[in-house]
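pasting for the record
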Amino acid sequence: MQIKNKRIALIGPNFFSYTEGIRLTFLKRGIFCVNFDERHSNSIIAKILYRLQIHSLFRRKRNKHLEKIFSSLVDLNISDVFLINTEAISSQFIRLLNKNNIKVHLYLWDSIQNKKIFLDLIPYCNSLSSFEPADCKSYNMAYIPLFAEDVFMQNDNREYTRKNNIVISATMHSRRLRETLRIEDLLINSKYKLVKLLYYHSYILYLIKCLFNPGGFKFLKYLSTSSKTKKEIAFHYFRSKYVLDIHHPGQFGLTSRTFESLRSGAYLITSNPTYLLLPEVLKKRVIYVNDYGKLGTELSRHVPIFSRLPKKMDYFLSLDRFVDDLINLMHSKR
């Protein structure tokens, strides 16, 4: 199969511009690629209803939007569609693509436990892949870890002075608010400073969340409802010794934050035991904490060495490797 003869479309939610990065990497390989936002609207209400799978309130708008996407796919002579962590696509839409000889490849960077809708899509896809090792084993999916874009790559011509900073760049959902408050309290009298790059999709909803955990009000000045640029996040990673990753309960796939922090040269602090799947060189740059109350003890046991990553490891962490994995996926057969 000649990969450059393929015409690829990416369909999924507009999520911190990750799909745009994937599209541009395909284009750099000389492969036609176009990106479609699966949502008819990115308003706060629409995002919440899509996440909750409550489509009845806007079914007509959603269907009209998907019809436009389908017409574009046909007009552009698309051969392969990647559904990237989709929330709006139905099995009927995939069957329509199947009937028009468009191959469909499903990639998940959320767990099936968190999004049961994925189970409806699996039977109709030509290939399946996920960042979640448990789902790969249970549903015979290819394991494809996530990635860090080049903005996080250490620059040979730049010197970095790393401070005793621990950066947390996170959406404040699930247990992250509670654990971030706990960690900040632990670090009050330590030499470490917690640098907070916090995101939530709505100030009003965050304030409601804080009614159940009033300590969260102190983070309002660090909170943004628009995502930080990757360049801004990388700036803090390059100048900090550690990046904190509080993984989402119910999933154990390694987050983009894992790859971005390691590619930047910082050490990763994580509660996710899946770090053990990383290559040995990278595992040595991870501090595993199963109880954040023990963070101080774990930090005292490690002496970070900020040497440059080998090229092979930088490639493993990169978007180039991720796209290579997607290309290989198109060769696979179910």
